[in-house]
């Protein structure tokens, strides 16, 4: 009898414990859902609304988008960070009771997360050590890439990577919006303006603004579509096609049209850095495709799409040459017969050759890997050769004969559309700092304030000679600007975060294609920004993609909370 009563009491206690345990579990589920949907709302605002946001045409469109980003991010952080803190506190309380919970320490086992934390710490230290705290807090006037905007990027990366439930349709949303932006940009280059914008002129394009800002936006979102089509057609590891999961959400045909529009606008937008970024990413894709015939076949389909976009643009240009309102060296090169015809012939030949080998089952991945290795080596040797020639001609003018007159082969302030002067200004600003500020930087987004108030006479005179009254808020090289603003510590964190992120995402290619797509976007953005800079529109989209890639990567490995 006593034994029976003891069993009843034990069962009641177990039921009571289950009810007690279910309360924190239910709270965690609710909070997790709230965080997930809050991040989705942030994505909609950044990926879908921000590209079209402006208040007065092109008058101050860059500032408009920067303010929009800051306001949206402030609201999201003020709402979601306290919820995330409560969620983690409940998890920790359950952990102390011996429950099974996700451990926060897991996020630091990944090198990318470690470098992201390091960059965040560097931002704090840089701000505290800055002589220009008023500017450093939000950033240079009308630019606003200071301490808080930079911290928002790091925080949204962690919020997305930790709390967002990966959704493949988010790529579709981003690309649907980008397609409209691409078409508008392409039409603008032929003097067609479906949307009338105040102060419209060839220096501004689509709904993004300045050519450099536009290129910084186009590169990562276009390469996301390129990666999806490449992996959708080529499959994951040559065994299972992503189209089995992806069909109906983003058909390959629609993706191909998107890429055609993207290639068209990238060719004509006017910034050659975007074409360089595309070339590097295509070379990496060729390398990653070599082993599997179906991926290689998909790669050459993409190359044929590029050739098709170039041919269509060349035909339109020839038909109405007076409508083209902006030209660049990269555009002239790609649309020239001496480049376009060989590129098309080679792409078509290899497409048909790989198709035939695949059909017969005789594709040899090892041979293509050797070809990829040779191509990569030749490309690297070509870059080294060109830089060496430029260095020799700069030190000894006339050394290259007829080539000596080409501006590319003479390093000067005017080299690369005045990149020579901006890079020189950034480097001089860094070398003029004391040991402490070489390590911590002058403060987030404070380069111009440092030059204006403390720069040497030679530095200020050089800037005035090349740029007049223009405020040089960055060095037109993202990593150099970060070095000046946040010092060696900040550059270590940012560069480490980007490099490990790219490498980690690309390694996921066969088993986690959506993470690989994000790796291609990051790679293209990084190469483009060797010659460009952070701006609210491009960097906000980039870090949204960065967070998505990490979320897909962690989900595949079962590390989601």
Structure description:
There is one protein chain. The chain has 561 residues and is mostly helical. It contains 21 helices and two strands. Strands 1-2 form a two-stranded antiparallel ribbon. Strand 1 (204-205) and strand 2 form a beta hairpin. Helix 3 (111-129) runs antiparallel to helix 19, helix 7 (211-234) packs parallel to helix 10 and helix 11 packs antiparallel against helix 13 (337-360). It is globular. The two termini are 46 Å apart. The model is unreliable at 16-20 and 233-250 (pLDDT under 50).
User: Which band does the percent of strand residues land in?
Assistant: under 5%
Shape: globular
User: Which structural category fits the helices and strands?
Assistant: mainly alpha
In round numbers, the mean pLDDT is 89
Q: How many helix segments?
A: 21
Q: How much helicity do the residues have? A: over 70%
- Enumerate the spans where pLDDT stays under 50 for 5 or more consecutive residues: 16-20, 233-250
Largest sheet data? 2 strands, antiparallel
Quaternary arrangement of the chains shown? single chain
End-to-end separation: 46 Å
Radius of gyration: 26 Å
N-to-C series of helices and strands: HHHHHHEEHHHHHHHHHHHHHHH
Count of strand segments: 2
- How is the largest sheet built, in terms of strand order? 1-2
Task: Summarize this structure as a short list of keywords or feature phrases.
561 residues, mainly alpha, two-stranded antiparallel sheet, 21 helices, 1% strand
């Amino acid at each position: 009898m006593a034994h029976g009563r003891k069993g009843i009491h034990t069962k009641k206690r177990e039921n009571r414990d289950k009810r007690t345990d279910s309360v924190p579990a239910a709270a965690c589920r609710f909070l997790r859902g709230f965080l997930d949907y809050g991040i989705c709302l942030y994505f909609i605002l950044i990926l879908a609304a921000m590209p079209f946001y402006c208040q007065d045409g092109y008058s101050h469109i860059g500032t408009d988008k920067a303010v929009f980003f800051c306001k949206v991010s402030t609201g999201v952080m003020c709402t979601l960070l306290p919820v995330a803190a409560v969620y983690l506190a409940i998890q920790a309380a359950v952990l102390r009771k011996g429950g099974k919970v996700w451990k926060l320490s897991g996020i630091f086992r990944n090198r990318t997360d470690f470098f992201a934390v390091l960059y965040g710490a560097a931002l704090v230290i840089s701000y505290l050590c800055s002589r220009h705290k008023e500017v450093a807090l939000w950033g240079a006037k009308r630019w606003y890439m200071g301490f808080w905007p930079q911290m928002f990027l790091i925080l949204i990366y962690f919020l997305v990577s930790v709390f967002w439930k990966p959704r493949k349709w988010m790529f579709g949303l981003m690309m649907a919006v980008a397609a409209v932006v691409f078409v508008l940009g392409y039409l603008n280059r032929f003097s067609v303006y479906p949307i009338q914008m105040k102060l419209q002129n060839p220096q501004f394009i689509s709904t993004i603004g300045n050519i450099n800002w536009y290129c910084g936006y186009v590169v990562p979102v276009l390469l996301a579509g390129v990666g999806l089509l490449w992996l959708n057609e080529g499959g994951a590891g040559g065994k299972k096609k992503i189209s089995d999961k992806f069909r109906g959400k983003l058909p390959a045909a629609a993706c191909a049209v998107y890429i055609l529009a993207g290639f068209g606008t990238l060719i004509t937008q006017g910034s050659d850095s975007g074409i360089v970024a595309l070339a590097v990413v295509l070379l990496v894709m060729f390398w990653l495709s070599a082993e599997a015939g179906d991926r290689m076949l998909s790669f050459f389909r993409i190359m044929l799409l590029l050739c098709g976009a170039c041919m269509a643009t060349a035909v339109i240009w020839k038909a109405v040459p007076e409508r083209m309102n902006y030209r660049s060296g990269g555009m002239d090169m790609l649309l020239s017969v001496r480049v376009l015809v060989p590129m098309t012939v080679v792409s078509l030949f290899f497409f048909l050759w790989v198709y035939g080998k695949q059909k017969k089952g005789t594709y040899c991945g090892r041979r293509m890997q050797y070809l990829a290795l040779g191509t990569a080596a030749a490309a690297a040797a070509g870059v080294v050769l060109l830089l060496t020639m430029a260095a020799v001609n700069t030190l000894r003018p006339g050394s290259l004969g007829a080539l000596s007159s080409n501006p590319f082969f003479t390093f000067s302030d005017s080299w690369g559309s005045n990149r020579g002067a901006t890079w020189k200004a950034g480097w001089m600003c860094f070398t003029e700092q004391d040991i402490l500020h070489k390590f911590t930087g002058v403060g987030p987004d404070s380069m111009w304030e440092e030059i204006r108030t403390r720069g040497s006479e030679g530095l200020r005179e050089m800037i005035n000679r090349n740029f007049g009254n223009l405020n040089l808020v960055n060095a037109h090289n993202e990593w150099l600007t970060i070095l000046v603003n946040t010092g060696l510590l900040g550059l270590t964190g940012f560069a480490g975060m980007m490099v490990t992120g790219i490498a980690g995402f690309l390694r996921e290619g066969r088993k986690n294609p959506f993470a690989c797509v994000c790796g291609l976007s990051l790679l293209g953005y990084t190469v483009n920004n060797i010659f460009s800079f952070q701006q609210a529109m491009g960097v906000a989209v980039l870090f949204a993609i960065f967070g998505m890639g990490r979320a897909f990567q962690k989900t595949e490995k079962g590390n989601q909370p």
